[in-house]
Amino acid sequence: VTIENISLVILSSILHSLWNILTQTSKNSQFFSGLKGVWL
């Protein structure tokens, strides 16, 4: 396992956490969920 792989995993975890917060707190949760589906 390289440092790049570890960084990528941590970064993706942070991004997923941010997405979860956005989708839970935003009134446009369906929009954010759709946007996440497009990008991921």
Overview of this protein structure:
The chain has 40 residues and is mainly alpha-helical. It has one domain. Helices cover 85% and strands 0% of the residues. It is built from two helices and no strands. Helix 1 runs antiparallel to helix 2 (29-39). The protein is elongated. It starts with a helix and ends with a helix. The mean pLDDT is 80.
Write a brief caption for the model.
It is built from two helices and no strands. The protein is an all-alpha fold and 40 residues long.
Shape: elongated
Largest sheet: none
Query: What portion of the residues fall into strands of 2 or more residues?
Result: under 5%
Number of strands: 0
- Structural class designation: mainly alpha
Question: How widely separated are the two ends?
Answer: 23 Å
Mean pLDDT: 80
Q: What is the gyration radius calculated from CA atoms?
A: 12 Å
Provide the low-confidence segments as ranges.
none
Spell out the helices and strands N to C: HH
